[in-house]
Design goal:
Layout (H helix, E strand, L loop, with lengths): L8 H11 E12 L5 H10 L3 E10 L2 E9 L3 H12 L6 E10 L1 H4 L2
Antiparallel strand pairs: 1-3, 1-4, 2-3
Length: 108
């Protein structure tokens, strides 16, 4: 007699969730008269996002922020993008959703 064990979709998904982590990188383009980094930081803190990396470049009279955050899902990242955009109508925000393989978790 052969017994076949099938895993539920939820079990498979949770196994994958344990092997990967998601981060989001927000790319913002601001003019020199637009919100300062402090306003951006308070908006990020309100979202409960963990700031992993923040790079600010100045090009002429504009600032380019590249902010990588973790600890939030895709829906929360979209909500955060809208919140950052609403600080000023001239802010341009693009977000990248990235999935990272966690080799330490996979080997357990």
């Amino acid at each position: 007699m052969t017994t076949q064990t099938s895993l539920s979709h939820d079990t498979c998904t949770s196994d994958l969730d344990n092997q990967f982590r998601m981060t989001h990188t927000f790319h913002l383009h601001l003019g020199s008269s637009q919100p300062a980094a402090g306003q951006l930081e308070s908006t990020l803190k309100e979202s409960n996002a963990r700031i992993d990396k923040w790079l600010i470049l100045r090009r002429g009279g504009n600032y380019e922020h590249s902010i990588t955050v973790g600890g939030i899902g895709e829906a929360a990242a979209r909500t955060l993008r809208k919140a950052l955009s609403s600080l000023n109508n001239e802010i341009k925000v693009h977000v990248e959703h990235m999935l990272h393989f966690d080799s330490a978790a996979a080997s357990r």
